[in-house]
Amino acid sequence: MNEPTAQTDFAPMPPVKGGLTPYLGIDGAAKAAEFYTRAFAAEEAYVVPPDEKGRTMHIHLYVNGSSLMLGDFYPEHGHPAKAVQACTMQLHLGADEVDAWWKRAVDAGCEVIMPLQVMFWGDRWGSLRDPFGVEWAMNAPVKK
Going residue by residue through the chain (144 aa), what tens digit of pLDDT does each one get? Predict the structure, then answer.
């Protein structure tokens, strides 16, 4: 049997939460994770230590009961930065206390794209852009 060539002294991976896990390629993934902790109350579940260039290949966060994963680009290993094509990417966060989530994100530095408001379908919805260019939407039923 061949010896593994990948580093194998990492801690065990934490459980993935939610049925679909977004995985973001971000230039400056560690800084983005730090920002998501402030803006979206993210909890760090796992981080691969940075390489000699300060890049990390994997960060696993928990946000509002779900997993969000991210890592830096590694063009020398076939993972270059690429523009999103033929679709719009937006992370959607559903929350009962949407006003508190919204305020925290805006206070942390997210740019408001569409203000949080009651929409034609009856829920309160709004969208934001974080400093890394990722768009986030927040949605909650109108409280009666």
Answer: 334 344 556 778 888 988 789 999 999 999 999 999 999 999 999 999 999 999 999 999 999 999 999 999 999 999 899 887 777 778 998 888 999 999 999 999 999 999 999 999 999 999 999 999 999 999 999 887
Q: What is the 3-state secondary structure (H, E, C) of the chain?
A: CCCCCCCCCCCCCCCCCCCCCCEEECCCHHHHHHHHHHHHCCEEEEECCCCCCCCCCCEEEEECCEEEEEECCEHHHCECCCCCCCCCCEEEEECCCHHHHHHHHHHHCCEEEEEEEECCCCEEEEEEECCCCCEEEEEEECCC
Separation between Cα atoms, residue 73 and residue 86, nearest integer Å: 21
Distance of alpha carbon 20 from alpha carbon 101, whole angstroms = 21
Q: And the tokens for 124?
A: 């309160």
CB atoms within 10 A of CB 108: 16
Residues 6+ apart with CB under 8 A from 21: 66, 67, 68, 69
Q: Which amino acid belongs to residue 60?
A: H
